[in-house]
Amino acid sequence: MNRIKKLNVGKLITYSKEVREAIKKDIPLVALESSIISHGMPYPHSLEMAKEIENIIRSHGACPATLAILDGKINVGLDAEILDAFAKAKNVVKVSTNNFESTLVSGKPGGTTVAGSLRIC
User: Fold this and answer.
1) CA 25 to CA 10: how far, in whole Å?
2) Do the bridges between strand 73-76 and strand 13-15 make them parallel or antiparallel, or are there none, so unpaired?
3) Mutual orientation of helices 45-59 and 80-88 as an angle, nearest 10°?
4) Are strands 63-70 and 110-112 parallel, antiparallel or unpaired?
5) Which of 4, 21, 79, 82 is buried deepest, with most CB atoms within 10 A?
6) Do 66 and 78 touch, CB atoms closer than 8 A?
């Protein structure tokens, strides 16, 4: 009889420090797609816009959770250093529902569309 190893989904998800703290403190999370950073606006405007939106969310008592695929993992929230590197990255895949799994397996960086972000949520 073949045994199928059960997939541990928890190992596929990485949470930023801010998101982990928000979960502990029961602070609401606001999921944000990341394709606007990787595909919608040129750097450095994309990074400035992302930081501005995240700060607006914080000012309303919630925690921003920008979603992206990096190194074969789903990232929920991007620490400042990772957000900066993501905004500068080249050859980022635009991730929707039709290529979600293949991007994850490929190890390539992925900027999530709204549909891709909803898949994570």
Assistant:
1) 20
2) parallel
3) 150
4) antiparallel
5) 82
6) yes
